[in-house]
Design goal:
heterodimer; A: about 180 residues; mainly alpha; Rna Polymerase Sigma Factor, Chain: A; Arc Repressor Mutant, subunit A; 2 domains; B: about 270 residues; alpha+beta; 5-stranded mixed sheet
Chain lengths: ~180, ~270
Amino acid sequence: MTASNIELEKIIAGCIENNRLSQRELYESYAPRLFVVCRRYANSEAEAEDILMEGFMEVFKNLKSYRGEGAFDKWIKSVMVRSAISHYRSTKHYRNELLMDEMDENSLVSEDTTVFATLEAKQILAQLEKCPDTERTVFNMKAIDGFSFEEIAKTLEKKENAVRIAYMRARNRLMAALGIEYR
Amino acid sequence: MKEIKDIFENYEQKPSDEVWNRLNARLDAEMPVANKVVNRGISKTWKLVAAVVATVVVAGSIALVSLMHIQGDRPQEQKETVREQTSNNTEVVVEESENSVEEVAEPLLADTHPVVETVAETEKPSQKEVAAPKPQEAAAKSAQKQNTRQEVLPANSTLARQLAADPVLKNLSDGSVDWSMPAHLSIPNLFTPNNDGVNDLFIIEGIEQYASPKLVIRDKNNRIVYQNVGYQNNWGGENCPDGVYSYEFTFNYNGIESQATGKVRIIRS
C-alpha cells in the first residue's frame, strides 16, 4: 500500500471523525486495488462501481470496529468481498439460473488453480464477466478469496454440492475461454 | 507456478472519478459533517467561558444577598415581605380572572365535537340564585321525574360558535336567546308512553333539519332494543318496561356527522 503505517493511522483517525478529506485520502489510496476485487465479482464495470461504493460506505461506517488487529489491507479487502457477496445476494431475484444440482458429480475433480499461471489478470477479468453470477461468485470466493466450499454454501444459502459444481463449471468455462489445458 | 489469486495480488485498476462523487454524495446523505473542526473548537471555548462567567455571577450574587441580609434592618425586611404579600394577592386575583376567561373559552377548543349542553330547565341557575344552591339540588333529586332535555348543537352551527365564544350569550340561557334556530336539537331525558296524549313518544326536537338521523336505544344490558336509520320521532317505548335506557343519536349536518348520547327514562304510571 502507498500509505505508511503512521500516515494510515492518521487517515483512519480522520475517517472515524467523519473528516471528508481523510475519507477521500483513504479512498484514493485503496480504491484501485479494491476495484479489482469488485471487478472480479461484478458482471460489468458499472456493477463493480456500485459494489465499490457500497463497500466503501461499509468501510466508513464500520471503521470504529477495526481495532488495529491484523493488517488493515486484509480487513478492508474482506469488507469489500462481503459487500460484493451481499450485492450478489441482493440481486438474487433478478436471476434465472439453471438448477445446478442436475449436473452429474463426475466433474468434481481437483480444486487446483495453478493452471492460470501464465495468464494476465485483465484477460481473466474479461472472461469472469461473462460467467453467470453464481458461478463467478463461487469461483471468486473459492479460488481467490480463500473461502471453503462449506463457507460458500453457508453464505450463499446453497447446497455444498451445488457450490462445488458451480465452481467446476466456472473453472471449465474459464479454461475453455482462455484456451488452456488443465491437468 | 502461480495461482490465480497471485495474479490478482498486485493488480490494480482505477475506478472512474465519478465513483468518488457518488460516494461523497452518499456520505453527505448518511454521515453528514456536523461542523467544521475550527467552529467546534470555538464553540467549546465559548461554552467554557460562559460557564465560568455564569458561576462567577451566581457566586457574586449569593455573596451580595448574604451581605445584605447581615447588614439590613429587620423592619425593612418586614416591610418588604408585606409588600411581597400584597403583590402576590393582586397576582392571584389576576390569575383567577384569567382562569374564568379560559373556562369560558374552553368550549371553543372542542370544535369538532358537537357542543352538548344539558340545559336542565328546572335546574337552570341564573347567577343571582347561586347563593342558595342546596335546596335546589335537593329539589332536583326528589323530583327526578321532571322533564329535562339535552340541547345539542352541532359544532359547525353558527349558534354553537356564538354560544361557545360569547360568555354573555352563554349565561343568558333563560329564554332571551332564540334556541329554535336551525341546527338545534333537543333530546328529552324521559317520556311517558301511557297513551294519555302527553309526551307519549321519544321526540327529538329539531330532528327534521338533519339528513339520515339514526337512533339506537340500548337497555341496561347494552342490548339494542330499538334502532332506526331515518328516525321520525315515532318510538313509543314498545316492548320496553319502565326504566332507564341509553340512546345514541347520530345525525348529519352539512356533511359532518355528529353524535349525541345520553340516558332516557321511560315512565308509564
